[in-house]
Amino acid sequence: MLAPSPLRSPALLSLLGLGALGLAGCRSDYSVKSDRLGVDLELQVLSPSYGEFEGDGPAVVTGVVSPAQAKVLVEGQEIEVNEDGSFSVEVPVDYAYRIIEVEASLDTQREDFRVPVFRGVDPVPGWPGGMTARLLPNGLSKLGESLGAAIDGLGWQATLAASLPAYESDIFAIRPVGIFNEPTEVTIEAADGGLDFVATLIDLKLEYELAVDWLGLSSELSISFGEIAISGLLVPILDDEGLLSLELEDPSLVINEPDIVLGPLDGALAELVIDAVLSYVVEPLTDLLLGVVLDSIGTIELGGPIAFETDLLGTSLALNLTDLVTEEQGIGAELALGINEPAASEPIGLSIPDAGTGGVHPAAQAAIALHEGVLQLAIGNLLIDLLGQVDSLLGGFGDLIGGMVRTLPGGDQAPAAAEGWCLGLDPGTAYVARMVPGIAPLGAVYMPDLVVDIGERKGAVCETWLKASLATEINLNIEGGTALGIDLVVAEGVVLEYGAVDQDPEAVVTALGDWLESTFGLVGGLLNFDLADLLGGLGGSGDPADPATLLLGGLAPVVLDSQPMVNADGTTTEGLFVLSLGVWAD
């Protein structure tokens, strides 16, 4: 097996750069003859095919050379040729892609063959048509904090104060004055069928006026509870219209013994007042509190439907929440994603990530299982289309292209009186989008045979001045928490044609790559996609009195990490990654 060679091959670049008129180029999987004197040298590479996916194994390079005594190099290393001219050798593919270079030579003749192949499998056939998501225990904890603030923000205290019972008798009267309490604490834990919910009212103090008119006495009476716990099962409900809500089922209340402060009263009168407080204030308080809280949060309409359709530079994206599950790992959801077609309405059957399996960041509040096929179909295809339009997108920048040409090695040989310049980018059919561990980048689109054709404009015709094949990688980076940004990197390349003579091909490729990297920023800015859009219609109406607004209005999603997803049984699914998210700001 051949050892892997560097991405750049200076020797090949130099050889391809020979010739006073430059090379007559073609697609980089075709061979090029440099000399046809004497007996014709013929090289035929049978495998691998252009853009082939090699799985986990090496690429098997096979072919036939004629005559059989010709010298054959694969990746710069000479290999054995059989008597019939056939040859075979394995080349490892230890990166996302590899450009396999085969060279045959006989005396002064030489033929070169250059073909890109990819590691792994094609991501498109394995794409499940959607994604899954789960709100993890860290997220449930933050949801509890938000729900506690939401409960207090709904003004239940004022509602309860207006409903507090009073007591009047011939001996004394107890009249409500107000309510005081510390912020409500809510804990939420995942359970089968819903979320175990406990709202704890801390240091609830009911203030009353105690009036004993026949004594001319009026004093403060306070009834304090260290904790009052309201519990139940909080059940997520997804209705037929795709609207999501939380409903509190089987609510109950646990109230401890109150601390009653009477003021100056004592003796038999004090006992009468305490009996009245317990019977007419404390005893009905349980039902009263439950009623007030249930009126506020018995059902919280979170909004929706969690579905949207958008257009991404000609690529339509449609998302639809198809299933919702509640289990001990947290609330899980399945979301169908349609690319240039409607999103499915049935569950997709993809594993849902949870905190107990590998790949989830320990600080994650939520996780999304995302298959790299969506990058291929949505982002990868979009970028390919975008590159194909670059000449029209930069149509007004002919002088910019001409200026760049003149800065290249050999640029002083460019036609000084050119009418204008044109630029064509052809990525061919050999490209793949991959997710990679981490978020810098989150993924990349690999185009190992991007043909750059720069020509002199002559009327309606564009006559090639420089043509090169560049191994190009477009990285997808997370910016601003959830937005996708892109940058282009040229890893290596070869010159196929050049009107300038006596130039170092590698220097030309380097300078051309540097220009393309900076120029792509002008086009790349047209791509605008934010993963936060996946939250769809959540967040409430914006009305401060809307429970959903109080609960979800402070969402601040951020991607923390991305790793290959490990299923519950310890296996992995090809191309499936788990994105760890923060959902609420700290």
Q: Can you offer a commentary on this structure?
A:
Mean pLDDT is 82; it is low at 1-37 and 536-541. Among the domains are: 10-118, Immunoglobulin-like, CATH 2.60.40.10; 137-297, Bactericidal permeability-increasing protein, domain 1, CATH 3.15.10. A hairpin with a 5-residue loop joins β14 (217-238) and β15. It has helices at 10-16, 137-153, 156-163, 267-297, 373-388, 390-393, 398-407, 505-524, 547-552, and strands spanning 32-33, 42-47, 52-53, 59-66, 71-74, 77-78, 86-91, 97-106, 109-118, 130-135, 167-168, 173-191, 194-212, 217-238, 244-255, 259-261, 299-303, 307-312, 315-327, 330-339, 366-371, 421-426, 432-435, 443-458, 461-479, 483-498, 529-530, 555-566, 572-584. The protein is built from 9 helices and 29 strands. Strands 18-19-20-10-21-29-28 form a 7-stranded antiparallel β-sheet. Strands 11, 12, 13, 14, 15, 16 and 17 form a 7-stranded antiparallel β-sheet that branches. Strands 1, 3, 5, 6, 8 and 9 form a 6-stranded mixed β-sheet that branches. With 586 residues, it is an alpha+beta fold.
Task: Record the SSE blueprint.
Elements lengths: L9 H7 L15 E2 L8 E6 L4 E2 L5 E8 L4 E4 L2 E2 L7 E6 L5 E10 L2 E10 L11 E6 L1 H17 L2 H8 L3 E2 L4 E19 L2 E19 L4 E22 L5 E12 L3 E3 L5 H31 L1 E5 L3 E6 L2 E13 L2 E10 L26 E6 L1 H16 L1 H4 L4 H10 L13 E6 L5 E4 L7 E16 L2 E19 L3 E16 L6 H20 L4 E2 L16 H6 L2 E12 L5 E13 L2
Parallel strand pairs: 3-9
Antiparallel strand pairs: 1-9, 2-4, 4-7, 5-6, 5-8, 8-9, 10-20, 10-21, 11-12, 12-13, 13-14, 14-15, 14-16, 15-17, 18-19, 19-20, 21-29, 22-24, 23-24, 24-25, 25-26, 26-27, 28-29
Helix pairs in contact: 3-4
